Amino acid sequence: MSLSRHINAEEVIEKCKDHPHRKHTGQEGRQTLHQSWSRDEDAARAPKYTMPEFGIPSKAAYQLLHDESALDGNPLLNLASFVHTWMPEEANKLIMENINKNQVDLDEYPAATIIHNRCISMIADLWKAPKEGKVIGTSTAGSSEAIMLGGLAFKKRWQEARKAAGKDYYHPNIVFGSNAQVALEKFARYWDVEARLVPVNASTNYVMNPHDAIPFIDENTIGVIVILGSTYTGHFEDVQLMSDLLDDLQTRTGLDIPIHVDGASGAFIAPFAYPSLKWGFDVPRVHSINTSGHKFGLVYAGLGWVLWRDESLLHKDLIFELHYLGSVEYSFTLNFSKPAAPIIAQMYNFLNLGFDGYRRIAIKDLRNSRMLSRALEATYFTVLSNVHKPSAKGAAELESANDTDDPELYEQGLPVVSFRLSDKFMAEYPHVQQAWIQSMLRTKGWIVPNYNAPEGEAETQILRVVVRETLSEDLIERLIVDILEITEALMGTSAYSRTSFVDPASPVHAEGAAVAVALPPSFAFPPVPHHSSYSRPESPLSSPAPVAVYHPPAAAVSFPSSLPVAATLGIHQRSFPARLVHALLLPFTFIFHLFTAFLFLTSFRSPASSRNPPAFLLAHSSSSAMLIKGVNVHQPDKEHGRPDKDNFGDATGEAAQGQSGFARQC
Ligand SMILES: *Cc1c(COP(=O)(O)O)cnc(C)c1O
Questions:
Q1: Gene Ontology cellular component (predicted)?
Q2: How far is the CA of 613 from the centre of ligand 1 (A)?
Q3: pTM of whole model > 0.85?
């Protein structure tokens, strides 16, 4: 090995520059010069690690940062993230209109406060909050802050109970699966709570098995966090089973252990895709739930929500009073200031999409996940996520079902595809490293992470694609082509016969050896129903490719690496009738939106809805009316959805008695 020494890149760059001491940076010169030249000069004057003494022109500053951020990945192709990256034009406009508002300025921005409270009510209803209860909740910066608050409420409640019983209250612990997102461990470490990680493995689907959690629980356990939608594989943990086992534990030992559901992703998928699943406030042991508005809530980064089933679950010590204009607001957040725009954007989605819109998007995401999963499974990969596998109910019904799109026919989970190279592949090509697929996809623009499975199964590497709303069917087709081309390139295989990779169980094989031998590897696509109810523009990729189109056999679709990409794109040419239906659906969609808008407007006059919202929700009609009538005056006593101070958990501590309100300082 050669002896090497550290190279200072900045020094090398500096030495390579032409005449660094003779730069033309005169202010007068710049104004008359060609813009791109002046941009370079301005940028060159700006120091990198200290604030410039004098500023550069705004255009140059913009261009400098604009160009530099071009080095970032393309958010549309960032399949690593659960975080939403696209909103319609009207939402973007609303966000820009409200971007300068601070949510904490309650009296300055009363409308933002009311919209916030209505969001809480709508989410409470979605999560099946008990109608008689006093649900309480707040927006947060994301699920992380929301989880901190949920955990703190647990900790305080446990401490007070222990104090009251005259027991030690210094060694709290919290129980969750080792598949937890980092926010859960952060909570434990930042707030001095011992994290008890329940090991997971392939046999538990890489998520916590509630039976395995029970032995970790003792009198110092402040609660169990059940994850609805593991970030690793998208699997749901079983909230109902956890609750049943904790009921049983309580009967046996008297320990009353509450559940917090981390629904960062799942709490905006389950209500729409799996209406029969019990996971929310309809499970009485669930005290609190968090979600990320910026994941499947379909808002840009910067928004989370946390709700408690009743005000009494929040200890008085945790609540700060904000006094202003003779009225009192209560606050339980870590951050004081936060932008109002994401909250308004969330309400935009609630109004624009409604329950049905969210459901359609969830169904579409899950359909696309199935397509990707099947393509991978039929070739070189093993798929660890489960949303493409028929459920117990689905196995019996899929054959005869009219709507094969119904997510309840399949195993429940997030629209996530986790996969790895199959054992067979790895045995045949031991030199191929799975991580290379990540790097090579990146060169094509796709961001698909390769990482280790959670503790307990950490030697397994997983590639993961989050199938978000923006990952359209067309893009998935491109992704499949790219993954297969890359994998085959890695195999380095011109001579190798790939027929052996055709899954003998796959319909392709059943079609007859001729197809399988001629164009392996192959996989079968199920007929994919074409849905045009989404108002997202179709990707240009869906229009017929201008070059000769490869016509695959009806059932079998092949991706030999020698075929040009344009040809493989032909896999989903739409027939003329399909396009006609599509064209007809456009005016229909327009009328549908008009109708929705009409329904929305009339709903302000008659708040009663067919879904029977709970009483606290109905009460919002008056605040909505305030907005509509343009009576833009903050009327705290008239706004509903406000917490009732007397309902907060009892403060016995000195500190709580001493809390003397809270002066606002913005
Ligand atoms: C994303 C995620 C979090 C953290 O959420 P942020 O909104 O990014 O703070 C926590 N838990 C799970 C399960 C997640 O998917």
A1: cytosol
A2: 28
A3: no
